Amino acid sequence: MNTLAALFLDSWGHTQSPTQVFKVNGTNVEGDSYNDITGPTWLGGGEMTLLPGSSVLVSNGSGNSFTASFVGVLRQEQVFQIQPGTSYLSATLPVAGPITNITGYVPRNWDTIQLWNVTNYVSHTYYGSNTWSNGVPELAVGQGFVLITTNTNNYTWTNTWQNFQPCP
Questions:
Q1: Residue 87 and residue 145: Cα distance in Å, rounded?
Q2: What average pLDDT does the segment 70-91 reach?
Q3: pLDDT for residue 59 is more than 90
Q4: From residue 132, how far is each of 100, 107, 115, 126, 127 by CA, in Å?
Q5: Over the chain, what is the mean pLDDT?
Q6: Helices first, then strands: H and E counts in the chain
Q7: Alpha carbon of 111 to those of 1, 86, 108: distances in Å?
Q8: Which of 73, 127, 128, 150 is the 20 to 30 A CA-CA neighbour of 66?
């Protein structure tokens, strides 16, 4: 149900063509391209999944702005499973704010959060004592992020939402 074809094929048309969607899958990058020249289709079959909490990069080749909306039931919590090195993540809660508030993330010294700002990534490195280079990373609604950790062990953190209200 969370494939590109299931999420977008019936709602996308000429305005979204051509659009490419990429995500990191382990150590590989996978992607697919939407095109409606001969009828709406995903050139790679549209089987790539967009699971809650995963991060993707959307390349809009059309020059037309468009909105991609998702509707569904939110889980009461989100579990992040982090491996040493680089992880591509996203909060599933539709709220903007500091990454530590939105995701429950507790930074470790020298962890780096990278946020895409239309043309490049902006790095926010944690130095301890609530000190970040470039300020505390602020997530927009639905914004993905890259976590680069110096931690040498796998770890998990769980974010439980109790008092958040979704954005209108």
A1: 8
A2: 73
A3: no
A4: 12, 10, 14, 5, 6
A5: 81
A6: 2, 13
A7: 34, 10, 6
A8: 73
